[in-house]
Structures are given as C-alpha cells and as structure tokens.
Amino acid sequence: MTLDEIKAIVRTVPDFPKPGILFRDVTTLVGNGPGFAAAVELMAERARAVGAEAIAGIEARGFIFGAAIASRLGLGFVSVRKPGKLPVPVLAIDYALEYGTDTLEVDPEAVAEGQHVVLVDDLLATGGTALAAVELLRRAGARVDHALFAIDLFELGGGERLKRAGVAADGLLAFEGH
Q1: Is 139 an active-site residue?
Q2: 61 has catalytic annotation
Q3: How deeply is 34 buried, as exposed, middle or buried, from its count of CB atoms within 10 A (0-12, 13-18, 19+)?
C-alpha cells in the first residue's frame, strides 16, 4: 500500500473541535486492517533504521501505534501515561497546553540508562506533548533523539520544536492545516 493510499484512509472532520479546524481522524486508519498494517510496517522500518532499542508511546493513541511497532520489531514498549494510571512511584512532568496545563508520567524503571528509545504518537501538531514526553523519558535515563508520528500537521511547527530539542521528528503522513 502506498503512502497516498494510506493517507486517503484518514478521515478529515471539518470544524472539530472548533470552527476552522480540520481534524485528522486517525481512527479510520486504525480501523482499516490493511492500512493500519501498512502504516505500522512503514513506521517500524523507520524505527529499525535509527537503531531503536525500545518504543515509547504517548497515551492514548500513541499506545496503539507504539505497541504495534514494538511488537513488530520484538522490542519492549514504554507507556507514557496520564496521571494516576501507574501503580508505582513515577517521574512526572507538567507541560503547557493551549488553555492550561497537563501532566505525563512514566515508570522510571521502564527504561535502562542510555537505552535508545524512539517516541511514537499518532499525531504531531505543536509538539508540546511530544516535547514533554521526550524530557520525561530523558529524566528516566533514555536516549531519545527520534520520534515517529502517523500524522504530521507540519504547518503547526512541532517538528521544528522537536528538532531544536535534539529530536528528529518523522511523520509518516503530512497534512496541511490544523
């Protein structure tokens, strides 16, 4: 399956969550067996090419892609969670959202010191969540210099923000707009 064929599976929902936004709905891709398999395979090839030793995914849809990629490569999966979901002492980071703040957490024993972890999420917009996850994984001892996304909304600048933090952002599918 070509990238254009995979991209055609992603549904665009206008005016969600507010007027003027074109929401790129990855659930249609996840729900399409051949499309999802092709996307995971292509992303796994990219993670393999950069020498991933583990895959980290951001809750929630990053879990879908990240766990599938980790399984495909025979690697461990590291969960970057929302607060209060892990049953052990955690490392946590607060980060800014458009309106307010949010928190991410990780089990500090989930990665080995210096382990090369590739971060995965479904969508890259402004990069705020991804940057917080990178910092959190680095605090846990991981080496994080690559991030993979099913969709990159490149006009929103997340890739550039990650680059400035020493992380190469790789979007499988690029979409214009918000």
Answers
A1: no
A2: yes
A3: exposed
